[in-house]
Amino acid sequence: xxxxxxxxxxxxxxxxxxxxxxxxxxxxxxxxxxxxxxxxxxxxxxxxxxxxxxxxxxxxxxxxxxxxxxxxxxxxxxxxxxxxxxxxxxxxxxxxxxxxxxxxxxxxxxxxxxxxxxxxxxxxxxxxxxxxxxxxxxxxxxxxxxxxxxxxxxxxxxxxxxxxxxxxxxxxxxxxxxxxxxxxxxxxxxxxxxxxxxxxxxxxxxxxxxxxxxxxxxxxxxxxxxxxxxxxxxxxxxxxxxxxxxxxxxxxxxxxxxxxxxxxxxxxxxxxxxxxxxxxxxxxxxxxxxxxxxxxxxxxxxxxxxxxxxxxxxxxxxxxxxxxxxxxxxxxxxxxxxxxxxxxxxxxxxxxxxxxxxxxxxxxxxxxxxxxxxxxxxxxxxxxxxxxxxxxxxxxxxxxxxxxxxxxxxxxxxxxxxxxxxxxxxxxxxxxxxxxxxxxxxxxxxxxxxxxxxxxx
Length: 457
Fold this sequence. Notes:
This protein has helices at 16-25, 41-53, 68-77, 83-86, 148-157, 178-192, 215-222, 230-235, 249-256, 324-342, 355-367, 383-395, 407-415, 436-444, 450-455; strands at residues 30-35, 60-65, 91-96, 99-104, 114-120, 137-141, 165-170, 200-205, 272-280, 287-296, 302-311, 347-350, 375-377, 399-401. By secondary structure, it is an alpha/beta fold. The chain has an eight-stranded mixed sheet with strand order 3-4-5-2-6-7-1-8, with helices on both faces. A six-stranded mixed sheet has the order 13-12-9-10-11-14. Helix 9 packs across helix 13 and helix 10 crosses helix 11 (355-367). The longest helix has 19 residues, at 324-342. The chain starts with 15 loop residues before the first helix and ends with a helix.
């Protein structure tokens, strides 16, 4: 087959981090490049995707963006380094079953035609455009802006692939975004556990990893951002942070940037003066929550040592009833875990609005040989007073939590936001979209001690 004559070579400059990521793409089915703007992540994926196109046995492949135009611009063109440029002289744009497509055939593909279908993915019904085909590979830009329907459909369309390959890129988003919890971080954990046989390849990069950006250009880009803003942390530093409305912003940023300065370091909390447990009872749209908190001598520190959240909904989102006996058994199990480590519980403070459930908790404690554990009504002081106390403890670095046993509390603190519809006062959002239950059960454990905690801070 005649060789294609190209007038000019594409100018690629990759740092070692980018080279390592691209090389590993050939070994792994799932490849994710996350990072700041102008970090070079899309160029990496397009380059690796094009390399695989040359030898893949599959004919039809998928390229998606938030819109079809976005997909064509970022993957097809990519500032002169896109697929149409890599396969210049061997490709042309056209239609494939009413979809925008790039047809590639030439020496690089051994004379075999490859079809890359371009589609938008942000809308709820976007998935309908990619139905009807089986794809060999899938490259997606700004995957966090894709609707979950499209992500699921695309994954289903890859099941018959002869050489499965997925390439995703994204700018950092909310650390609790489903793209992390349901896919990226979930696959990472499976890889660590040796349960992701296809191979998982992840790269986090910043603008500083892009060797094509000159120092003067870098200064010009940085000058557009407030170094203290979340946009600077996302776009320049490449950190996962929540954009607005967070009540405990510094805590959420600390978790998302993996600084973990609030995590308790050690096997066991020492010098405990009080060890209280809080219970918040769930209802429609919420859940039951238990939290155990240690307050050290002199009211120096507040340390959350264990938390648990029990959903009142099934996998389909339907409300379910957890009978009092079952709930009581769950709570006793929680208490026994705390007692096995620390030997005692000072008090249990429960949501006073549910006296029937409190009676059930007391009965369960007696049945489990824990009649000595005293259960009282939570004080339920003003929510903003509880929030203010938590904020002060965090600011004074007197709040810590056991990360291994307080995942539900960590999530709740990261997600807590002010109600955007309340313009005249600060009201914590409580519409079922965030875990208010874990916050309440945690606050019940120390609210009676607020005046002492703040006074002696």
